[in-house]
Each structure stands twice: as C-alpha cells, then as structure tokens.
Amino acid sequence: MISATKALERLREGNRRFVSGVRNPGILMSSPFGGGPAAEQEPLAVILGCSDSRVPVEMIFDQGVGDLFVIRVAGNIVASSQIGSVEFAAERFGSRLVVVLGHTQCGAVRATVEEIQRPTENQSRNLRSIVDRIRPSVEELLETEIRHDQDELTSQAVRANVRASAEQLRHGSKILEQLIEREGLLVVGAEYSLESGIVDFF
Ligand SMILES: [Zn+2]
Description:
Blueprint: H1 4-20, H2 25-29, E1 45-49, H3 57-60, E2 68-72, H4 80-92, E3 97-103, H5 107-117, H6 125-142, H7 150-171, H8 174-183, E4 186-192, E5 199-201
Parallel strand pairs: 1-2, 1-3, 3-4
Antiparallel strand pairs: 4-5
Helix pairs in contact: 5-6, 6-7
The protein binds zinc ion.
C-alpha cells in the first residue's frame, strides 16, 4: 500500500514530467495485457476529475495502466455513485489518496454561471442535476464584488467547486470518514491549468 504522502509526490513528479515533455519511458513500454496490471490493481490514487476532453488524467500525471483509479464526470461533482466509487477503491484496493481535480475554463462551471445569470426554461433534468451541484459554489461568489468580472468569477468558482466536492467526499460517508480518521486517507483538491499543463494542489 502506498501512503497518501508518497502518492501525492508521485503525482507531482509525474505532472512535472508531463509539463517538461520528458515522459517516463517505462510507462510507454509496459504492456497493458497479460500479467502485472491486468492481473490485479493497486492504484496509487483515486482521481475524481472533469470529463473535459482536454484533461486526460493518466497523461497529465504521466501514469500508466493500473496506476490511477479515475472517476470522471462533468464538473467533477459528487453524487452517490462518485462516493461509492471512492469507497470501493479505498476499501478494496487500499488507495490512500483521493484527488478532486478541477481545471481552468471548466465548461460545466461556466454553464452553471450562465444558468444562474440567465436561467433557461427547458434545460434537461439530467443536465440540471449537474448544474445544481455546482450552483452553491457559484452563488456564494455572486454575493461578492467578483460578480462583475466574468473570467474571475469562473476561475474562482472552479476552485470553490473543487473545495465543495472535496468536503462532500470527506463527510459524505461513514466509510470514508473512518478511513480518514484511522487509515490516513487524504482527500485533496487540485486544479489543472489548460494554459500551462501544471496541476496545482491546494
Ligand atoms: Zn470541466
């Protein structure tokens, strides 16, 4: 089992490799079939990321097959199935690090900002279920002066939404609470920059 601190260090190192363009050759050559990763998994981290096509999780952390347990959903929101997935990975595979990964210019966050400012009547119920989970993070910011600056509003809302998702994971289930208390499970927030490729953990 890899500790949360060690796992975090491996993700930081991997992201540094990704940014500098020097990939780990072992990852490119390792076969995804047969023995090793295909036989069993011991992912070093669980990543709850956004579905955005520009944020391919394994690539930005320069990790290979079997290294990351990835949950992707638009706006990296937390609903029951996301909590269940994290519980599953942490209990079954012993992952001790959970990263909620947002990113700059998130379309789901932007759509939420627009929906609050100019509500549409016939939005699909399914899409609304995503927007409604991001909404509280945006509404808080709309009560501040930031509301006049659309770009700043979106960028702060991305981080607020990551923090909210991390909080929900920390307190969303008894299992995760116990793993945090007794087993050193760590839930951290992070933001991937589409502009620089850098992941900032916070
Ligand atoms: Zn996004």
